[in-house]
Amino acid sequence: MASRNFLIRSPKEEESNAAVREAILLGGKNAAIAGTVVAVPTLVGCRVFPWAKRNLNYTAQALIITAGRLCC
């Protein structure tokens, strides 16, 4: 005998699922924007400023970007 599911979803549950999906999408977009805002100036600075060009390798650049992302 097949099992039957007698639970009926309320309209509020469907609305909350849509709200959760929308929040996840907006959070992803904001994270991408924040990552770009932190990464671009660091990478440009490491290529333009003579001191940074001489003293910061790729690992140091990645650590600066990561620290900037954690602070935001």
Shape: rod-shaped
What is the radius of gyration computed over CA atoms, rounded to a whole number of angstroms?
23 Å
Percent strand equals under 5%
Unreliable parts: none
| Biggest sheet record | none
Pfam families: ENOD93
InterPro entries: Enod93
Give the helices and strands, then pairings.
Elements: H1 11-48, H2 50-55, H3 58-71
Helix pairs in contact: 1-3
How does this model look, in words?
- The chain is an all-alpha fold and 72 residues long.
- The protein has a domain at 31-72.
- The protein contains three helices and no strands.
- Helix 1 (11-48) runs antiparallel to helix 3.
- The longest helix has 38 residues, at 11-48.
List the main descriptive attributes of the protein structure presented here:
3 helices; 72 residues; single chain; 0% strand; Enod93
Give a brief outline of the structure.
By secondary structure, the chain is mainly α. It contains three helices and no strands. Helix 1 (11-48) runs antiparallel to helix 3.
